[in-house]
Design brief:
about 300 residues; mainly alpha; two-stranded antiparallel ribbon; 2 strands; globular; ABC-type vitamin B12 transporter activity
């Protein structure tokens, strides 16, 4: 049943994509902003405590509601598929990246730069378009695709929903700025925890679906230099799988950060955006195939035992 629900959720995401109006995450974003304005106050210790409380307030109610709904006859199956569709961002990833590729192909770098700045928290005037876009695809492949698939397999729709909400909170609050250093601590640490295994499975998937030798080499030798325990394996393996070089000086809100070199080969070019999207797509096909095979083997074993 899990494999069938996964397939339905992925197909629904590819066919329908994100809703253009009334997206649940938009409402969730309004809630996070409202909570943050009222809870993000006091000294460092108080802010950390209030940050933990804010995460619980925003994540637990919808997850518990989902847990109740999926246990209902028939309705539960529909809720499971719709929740996975909500948690997945495969179609969205492609929809955001192809306009950047088209703008680059048409020589309109100003448009490509503006579109890229919308999807990553980097200063528009100084960002490297191709590198930033490829890095965003690889990172979001883990956060918006494989992480949701993993937690759906482990804990069903409530697991996928919890992962997506926690990841969204980290994207909103998980900054090391003065404003969010303490208040966003809980969201950032929880996101690292729930992404620990999915990130490494994503890195393996990138390697198996690309230049495996180089991907595993870059993962082993370069991931530790990255400041994120989960982003390092994902980005290093993805860059190696594509045989491109990522990393380097990056400006975030006026502050320059020297990101470590990831991958080997030439700098990312426009065509690498499509190659990165295709890499994520092949990874999804690999996951679905493996999960289906495991389920068939498990059912065959039960039949043989009986």
């Amino acid at each position: 049943m899990t494999a069938a629900l996964l397939l339905c959720g992925v197909l629904l995401d590819l066919w329908w994509g994100e809703p253009r109006r009334w997206h649940p995450l938009v409402g969730f974003g309004h809630c996070t902003a409202w909570i943050e304005r009222r809870f993000n106050t006091g000294n460092g210790g108080v802010r950390r405590l209030l940050g933990v409380l804010a995460v619980l307030m925003l994540v637990l109610p919808p997850v518990l509601l989902c847990l109740w709904l999926v246990q209902l006859p028939y309705v539960g199956l529909l809720v499971s598929v719709l929740t996975l569709w909500f948690a997945l961002g495969l179609n969205s990833l492609r929809a955001h990246m192809l306009p950047i590729f088209n703008a680059l192909e048409q020589g309109d770098r100003d448009k490509a730069r503006a579109l890229t700045a919308r999807i990553c928290s980097r200063d528009e005037a100084t960002l490297d378009i191709e590198r930033s876009a490829v890095e965003s695809i690889l990172e979001n492949g883990s956060d918006a695709v494989f992480g949701a698939l993993f937690w759906f397999c482990i804990a069903g729709a409530p697991g996928a929903l919890a992962f997506r909400l926690i990841n969204t909170l980290d994207a909103s609050w998980g900054y090391r700025s003065e404003r969010f250093l303490h208040f966003g601590w809980a969201a950032a640490r929880l996101d690292d925890l729930v992404g620990l295994i999915p990130a490494r499975l994503t890195a393996i998937s990138y390697a198996l679906c690309g230049n495996a030798r180089l991907a595993f080499h870059c993962w082993r030798t370069q991931a530790g230099a990255h400041d994120s325990p989960n982003g390092g394996p994902v980005m290093a393996s993805g860059a190696g799988a594509l045989a491109v070089q990522l990393g380097g000086p990056t400006c975030y809100r006026g502050i320059w950060v020297h990101k470590p070199q990831l991958g080997e080969g030439p700098a990312a070019c426009a065509l690498d955006l499509k190659r990165a999207i295709a890499l994520v797509g092949r990874g999804v096909m690999l996951w679905l195939s493996v999960i289906l095979m495991m389920q068939l083997i498990g059912q065959g074993w039960l039949v043989w035992q009986s």
